[in-house]
Amino acid sequence: MSIAEIMKTLEEKMDHSIDAFKNNLTKVRTGRANPALLDTVHVDYYGAMMPLSQVANLSLIDSRTIGIQPWEKGMGPKIEKAIRESDLGLNPASMGDLIRVPMPAMTEERRKELTKVVRNEGEGAKVAIRNIRRDANEGVKKLVKDKLASEDDQKRSEADIQKVTDKHITEVDRLVVSKEQDIMAV
């Protein structure tokens, strides 16, 4: 493995960490409705646990209400039960075939709690990025030890690795601040 390959995999892995972090942030509830919030809900579908998105159509009715249209008639009560039993704190109500999931207004205390969750997720993403940096630095040191690269190459690549790491950590910080502003907006 060359230094160029190490840098390429470093960049890819860090980008994956950022994507995973963004995905985790979509699950943190702001005051607005977002169908991605229900991604973690699984419904009993003929004995198999299926993601909600695979047994119903999810849509936004308005900014504070998610609409769920089951694909089969008998699935409504099962979907309602699955949402109620999830740890999302949501209370669905059915109106004929359509299930409405209103987003409850968030209290100040709940908003502060969620900002802590977001900061925690951000810290986890930063740790993942730093671990990737460590692995890349070890890879470069191994190349130097095996006489496949010079010590000057090592110093240069470590500086480059640090620049890439700093760029990704700054992106995580930016995402955390943006999500916190979203949550605290009334």
UniProtKB/TrEMBL annotation:
CDD domains: RRF (cd00520). GO terms for cellular component: cytosol. It comes from the Bacteria. GO terms for biological process: cytoplasmic translational termination. It is found in: Cytoplasm. Keywords: Cytoplasm, Protein biosynthesis. InterPro entries: Ribosome_recyc_fac, Ribosome_recyc_fac_dom, RRF_sf. Pfam families: RRF (PF01765). The keyword Protein biosynthesis applies. Residues 21-184 form the Ribosome recycling factor domain. One of its GO terms (molecular function) is ribosomal large subunit binding. Belongs to the RRF family. HAMAP family: RRF (MF_00040). Responsible for the release of ribosomes from messenger RNA at the termination of protein biosynthesis. May increase the efficiency of translation by recycling ribosomes from one round of translation to another. This is Ribosome-recycling factor. The gene is frr.
